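[job 0412] stage=fold_complex status=start
inputs:
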Amino acid sequence: MTVRRLGRWATIVLLVVGFVLLGSGGALADHWTVEVSAPEEGALGETIQLTATVHDAATGEPVESAELVFFSSVAFAGVGGDIELGEALTNDLGVAVFDYELRKLGTHTITIEGGDEPNILSFPVTIGGQLYQSPEGINLIPGAGGWVVTLVIGSIWVIMIIVGVAVIRVSRGSPPADNEAEAEEDQQERSTGTKWLNTATMVTAVMVIVAGGIVALLIRSPNTHHNRDPVGYDRSAVAFVEGAYAYPDFGLADDAAAEAEIGRGLFVTFGCAGCHGVDAEGTTTAKSPASASYDWVRQVIRNGQPGMPSYSEQELSDTQLNEIFAFLAEARGELGG
Amino acid sequence: MESVNDWQARLEDTTLDPARKTTRNYYAFLFFLLAVTGWGVYAYSLQVRRGLVVTGMSDRISWGLYITMFVFFIGISHAGTLISAILRVSHAGWRTPVTRMAEFITAVALITGAFFVIVDLGRPDRLINVLVFGRWQSPIVWDVLAVTTYLTASVVYLYLPMVPDLAFFRDRQAPWVSRPKHMLYRILAINWRGTSDQKRHLRRAISIMMILIIPIAVSVHTVVSWIFAMTLREAWNSTIFGFFFVAGAIFSGIATLIVVMAILRRVYHLEEYITPRHFLYLGYLMAAMGGVMIYANLSEYITAGFKFEEGTEFLFRQLFIDEFAPYFWFYFIGGLMTPVVFMFIRRLRTIGGIVTAAVFVDLGMWVERYFIVVTGLRAPLLPYEPVNYAPTWVEWSITAGGFAFFALLITLFVKAFPIMAVWEMTEERREEFEEMVEYEHEFDGEEILASGVPDSAPEPETGGPP
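[job 0412] stage=fold_complex status=done
writing structure:
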């Protein structure tokens, strides 16, 4: 009897608590206003702060410990979507701060969830200063630097040039020979220009040129990578795979296998490899497309599949489609299918 | 007792011989070398057209035979420096007959080694970028600087003591040598008449170079080792690497010198000048370097093995027990212990024995370069399955071509240039002779020879009881 009564009370208490919790939770979520802000624009490599301020819509009070989730919209391998960057909690002033490192150029779009509606921030990212900041390392030693290398190598070459001059001396140091025949020959050699334009002079000249080149290289060294004048230097240009693997200048493109080779490159560029594997071997996302017939490949590429985007003719030309197929046909052989 | 002049005349004849007489065997050998080199060039042309896909290298094991060859040849280029410069500085008289060969090996090995860096590039046309975009912060650029400097210095160092000998070729060969060849000697001999003035300048130049070239040579191999040691790889993460590579270089340099010396001695009958004493001394030097190498190996592996940090286990396993164990133990027992053991056993301390040991050393050191390169890259940095590397026929062909090219340059050199330092040898002989007269003391060079090696009869080329 007491057991049954206890059970009833417990149920009632649980229900009440549950309703209160549910109600307050709903009330909290429904009545937040969230304001988000970010710098006008950012520079590549910089870490910026995204801030979100949360107020209770009803009372206007700042909300503490509210959780906000930051997403970034990305497109990869032909598919787009939001990926979670992380979370941040508000402090007693209702302000949440999220550190965000800018790793690519272009417009960044950040979605912040937590309020009634997702808030969206959008800002451009441009080239800033030098990207790579080297840690102290050897520079900890006072005075260590490129000049030491320059000095050491420079002095070695100076000594070698001194040797070269000694060799020139050797070539010029022949006084009148003791017998007449030799003296004549000597004369002849001198008149044919061997006196100045001889091996010794040439060797020395070459050494001077090489030494000059080396010193020039060392002196130019800090400025070779545009790190002193980043303006107009687009780093992102080298950051993505473009075109095919084939090196047209080097005859690969003229080969019989060229079509398949180009196809291999396209397979990566169009993102097929992201789902089907670099060698078209199939992944957990999608099976291997290597054994598909030409018509089927065409059909699938143009119309898509569940889980696979379609590619229109503007995006992926017929020639490219053929090249991809050539690659798939080759892959079929390699995969033994 | 024969006079110095007679002695000199005989020496001059012997030195001229290779340039005067060309046997049919010589042409056959030359043809063979040209064929192998040509095959290597063909394989390389294929690689240039197709790219590095034709090799067994991949993204994870991106260095293979080519870099092995590079390190190996840069290593044996230390032959000249050590024998010639160090012994010259320390006035070790016995070195003179072998200096020329040693210096020549240096220059040729450097040229061959430097080639292999270019061969290793997928886009050799981009080599120019090293100059255009080079930064001194990069170990690759240190390498370029060091190798260029060393190549220039060693060519100069080969050339300087050769000037008087070239003049002698110019004068002695005049009646029968072809015009262009005579022209060559005349140009290269830069008016050498042997006046005291010229001698003074030449001596000065030589003595500057002989000192300068030692630090350059040491720096070159240190920098080559840094190409490895400056990367974040378990196998190469060693402070001893610079020293280790330099020691290995000198070690394999001596071995190569012994082999080349033995071949030239046999082919061109240089028995009078290149005596068992030379083999013996070089053999002792080689054994000493072998000891140093054994020590360096112990020191390196025991420090790493005692701590056994993460990653070391994989490395030790593949090196000592699994895939690379045959290579490692061949290197350790065949390459490092053989020379030491051979020099301890009197019966093996013959020319044949020493040459056999030298061949083992060369093979062992080559294998060592190979496994240093490959095991280092094979140990995964991320928890992946390790990938494997097997050279393709293209790589083997180019490697064979490289060895043939090395031999080819030596073969051609022998034909055109004095293979022994006639001038220096004569000067020394003269000094010795004068001393001898002074002390009225019968000098017998062979007395120094402490072992029971017979001096005269040609030795069997490979070991075995005499």
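[job 0412] summary: The domain at 15-428 of chain B is CATH 1.20.1630.10 (Formate dehydrogenase/DMSO reductase fold).
[job 0412] exit 0
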